[in-house]
Specification:
Radius of gyration: 33 Å
Strand content: 15-25%
Structural class: alpha+beta
Strand order of the largest sheet: 4-3-6-5
CATH topology of the domain at 134-232: Chitinase A, domain 3
CATH architecture of the domain at 134-232: Roll
Order of helices and strands: HHEEHHHHEHHEHEEH
């Protein structure tokens, strides 16, 4: 059997995907009962860009899977008892699938996904107590500099202040000396992501348990400077910039629900007006 499959696959790849097949007979590869696996179907199943050897493996797998699937289908069709229920399930699934595809088509054609900024902000203000953080966020200043970097005493002064001239000093200094410099005094940042820049054994949870503080740590290669100017803990209200994408998704989904509900109501009313719905009294 495996040898026969290999002959089919080699024949397919030798002919190539671009050759024109003149009729269905030469296009057929395998037949089980009245079901036929065509060469074109197999060609379409093989991803482009595969090597010759990988194409053989992919084609052989597809053929064997097609054979097994159809053998199982045939025996199941002959031995299943509750065929009426199967047909009902298939029909219900088909209806649901058609309705879903049609609704998605309507949404894509008629509903914009753009939400104006004011609507997003208004929703945030109405629901900020429901939008909770799952991890800590901070505002602050972070630097990672080599242990042999110059002007370390100046850095110790600059990173502890939010003064504009100190920020300028840090930015200029970081161009040549800093491995990492993050200034986020006015914008919330994910604290866990920030701590990916620091070895676990350098800063522990106890080090940053206090909300607002400055920290300096050192290992064999670097100094780590952190000035926490503000802090939000898990369970606190999420800041707007963090909650914005979630809010947008909520409003888009609500717009979809409202749109589909109105579509159903309009469809129902039109059918009533045209006399397409009949109610029978007992």
């Amino acid at each position: 059997m495996k040898f026969f499959l290999l002959i089919i696959v080699l024949s397919l790849l030798t002919i190539g995907c671009n050759n024109t097949i003149e009729n269905k007979k030469t296009n057929a590869l395998v037949k089980i009962g009245n079901k036929i696996l065509n060469r074109s179907e197999l060609e379409e199943s093989i991803p482009s860009g595969l090597s010759y050897e990988d194409s053989i493996i992919a084609a052989e797998y597809y053929i064997r899977n097609w054979i097994n699937e159809n053998l199982l289908y045939d025996i199941a069709s002959k031995n299943i008892y509750d065929k009426e229920n199967i047909e009902k399930l298939v029909d219900n699934y088909r209806k649901s699938l058609l309705i879903y595809q049609y609704e998605e088509q309507l949404i894509n054609e008629r509903l914009t996904k753009e939400i104006d900024e004011q609507s997003l902000y208004d929703y945030y203000n109405r629901n900020k107590d429901k939008l909770k953080l799952e991890k800590p966020f901070i505002k602050g200043i972070f630097l990672k500099v080599p242990v042999n970097a110059p002007q370390l005493n100046e850095i110790r002064l600059w990173y502890k202040s939010q003064a504009p001239n100190f920020r300028d000093n840090l930015e200029k200094y970081s161009l040549n000396n800093t491995a990492i410099f993050i200034y986020s005094v006015d914008k919330w940042m994910d604290f866990d992501e920030l701590m990916e820049n620091v070895p676990n054994d350098i800063m522990s949870k106890e080090d940053y348990a206090v909300k607002i503080k400055t920290l300096e740590k050192q290992d064999a290669g670097f100094f780590y400077f952190l000035n926490i100017t503000d802090f939000l803990l898990p369970g606190d209200n999420a800041p707007y910039e963090h909650a914005r994408s979630t809010i947008k998704e909520i409003l888009i989904n609500q717009r979809k629900v409202d749109f589909l509900k109105k579509t159903e109501e309009d469809l129902y009313q039109r059918a009533l007006d045209k006399g397409e719905i009949q109610f029978f009294n007992e």
